[in-house]
DNA sequence: TTGAAAGCGCTAACAG
DNA sequence: CTGTTAGCGCTTTCAA
């Protein structure tokens, strides 16, 4: 691995000139031929700047971490792609982290930043990461942007227009003629879950309807949990004819539970989910969803983080463009 | 962020003593009280060793990259967990990389190692990464271990017992009474796909049967592609009564295609897939699979890589323990 | 237009 | 048992 001084020697210049040329330092004025000699030497020796040397000198690593509860969730494919593209454009390296158990996870995170391996984080909170734990992280000098989650003390976040998404899902059901629409939502503690419920409520209200507590469950997004919620709602004496499920993975679980309990979809009950992923086309029936622009969340979160590293103030963004889009498949139909 | 010299000053010792105590250098012999003073100072100042300084000095980063075609594939959850556990145990940081387009991807990889950001890679080849491209990577000083893929010039790999897995899947079908068993396999260029086909052939042979080319497709693991293969096989004049699908994601696609063409599973045809993932329990019918120990692949790959970094010779491992295990769900039944 | 030199934080060889 | 010191590769101020 060639070093800078080898390049300099080969080009017959000092290391400082070599450094400035290779970094495209705009304030430097070198003779074109000197410049060319340096460039040529770098090419000849296939030079890459040593990362540790640079990081040590500059006291920043030019690396960012994207930390999500479970990177193998297909939903994150888009988020990752967006974050990755943005990082690349800004010449940052993106590391993907994971934190099954967040209490332990946060320590890994803390280390990552304290040791200087990364300059900042894009983090998706899990519902069990308390505001306090988050504050501790931030207090620890961590530059951080939250995605698909927020904290009361706003300090950088990018979320989707969950209200619009849930509203669109609900309106779709309403337009099909449903009047008894239930909600399988996220946990109450979640800001995002509350926003989705709000969209649901707004759509109902605009149709002259009201939320009915017996048709609402707030247990979370895990497939098994949503499955339980679906079974429970449908066993109500007079249950809904349609269900908004606040997350596509939950909806997949719900579909299975409904079938197992002999409830036909969409014959007996229609189901629409928020968020889209490839599996939704392979459930039975294929699942109608509201696709949200997760790519853009990843992209903008990284840009925001980099801006903040450069001194910009923390900002809280709601990505409303492109807007949520209905992906019509076969799990919704007019009421029986 | 406290530095080593701050710790040393606070403890009233030199940096070298502080360094050695903090690193648990076994050759150092310090007075217990000196030692304790250093430890206390580190606690007081909440010290973490700066990563760049250490990496520069030691010329290694103590970081590893796990690079897979698409980290959001649920199949990789186990692989990641295993790799992550092994890294943690050895005090390495694990970075997850991704490479949608490998030709570009390999450049990212090259940079990662050339810049010294990571000491080595655990890499899953995509089928379109040529042996030559791989050699280039390795030639570039990259310490690398392949997972779920290999290269003719063996230089470190960990794979599953694909032969046993495919054999188990096929035998399950055979034991149900099927005599006409087809295969939806991977692409021919893939070593792993060949091994799975071999398991299939061995099981057939042991039952006195022979592979029949009209019942075999070798198009790859993508859901759409396997879907096409399924439709095509079942439209053969006298088609099989059972199908081994060499990958669970492909099987999910196949199930959808079969249903769309009016083929009943398992009524008309049984389906068993290799590998397991949560979604398999949520297809219709729930998919019978052969679960393979992907966790162990991740775990052993990282250990192997770390051993190699320490000078051990490259090794090629087949993980046969725990053995493949049949997960019986509802997509298989006796032939019609 | 170019070069010399300091120093980022750390480890380890060597000296006391 | 502990301290001094060189130097990893890089950027940048300052001087020429």
Description:
The structure is a homodimer of 336-residue chains. With 336 residues, chain A is of the alpha/beta class. Chain A has three domains: 4-49, 434 Repressor (Amino-terminal Domain), CATH 1.10.260; 59-160 and 294-319, Response regulator (Rossmann fold, 3-Layer(aba) Sandwich), CATH 3.40.50.2300; 162-293, Response regulator (Rossmann fold, 3-Layer(aba) Sandwich). Chain A has twelve helices and twelve strands. Chain A has helices at residues 4-11, 15-22, 32-45, 51-58, 76-89, 102-114, 131-139, 162-175, 191-206, 223-234, 248-260, 294-309; strands at 63-68, 93-98, 120-123, 144-147, 157-160, 181-185, 216-218, 242-245, 270-274, 288-291, 316-319, 325-327. In chain A, the strands form two sheets. A six-stranded parallel beta sheet of chain A has the order 2-1-3-4-5-11, sandwiched between helices. A six-stranded mixed beta sheet of chain A has the order 7-6-8-9-10-12, sandwiched between helices. In chain A, β3, α7 (131-139) and β4 form a beta-alpha-beta unit. In chain A, α5 packs parallel to α12. Chain A starts with a helix and ends in a 9-residue tail after the last strand. The model of chain A is unreliable at 101-105 (pLDDT under 50). The interface between A and B is large, with 48 and 48 residues. Chain A binds a DNA duplex (16 and 16 nucleotides) through residues 3-5, 13-17, 19-20, 23, 25, 28-31, 34, 49-59.
Task: Specify Rg of chain A, calculated over alpha carbons.
Answer: 25 Å
The oligomeric status of these chains comes to homodimer
- What general form of chain A does the structure show? elongated
| Biggest chain pair interface | A-B, 48 and 48 residues
Low-confidence stretches of chain A: 101-105
Distance between the termini of chain A: 71 Å
Q: What percent of residues of chain A adopt helix (DSSP H or I)?
A: 40-55%
Query: What string, H for helix and E for strand, traces the elements of chain A in order?
Result: HHHHEHEHEHEEHEHEHEHEEHEE
Tell me the CATH architecture of the largest domain in chain A. 3-Layer(aba) Sandwich
Largest sheet data of chain A: 6 strands, parallel
Number of strand segments of chain A: 12
Mean pLDDT across the residues of chain A is: 91
* Lateral strand order in the biggest sheet of chain A: 2-1-3-4-5-11
Number of domains of chain A: 3
CATH superfamily of the largest domain in chain A: Response regulator
- Counting helices, strands and paired strands, the structural category of chain A is alpha/beta
In DSSP terms (H or I, runs of 4 or more residues), the helix count of chain A works out at 12
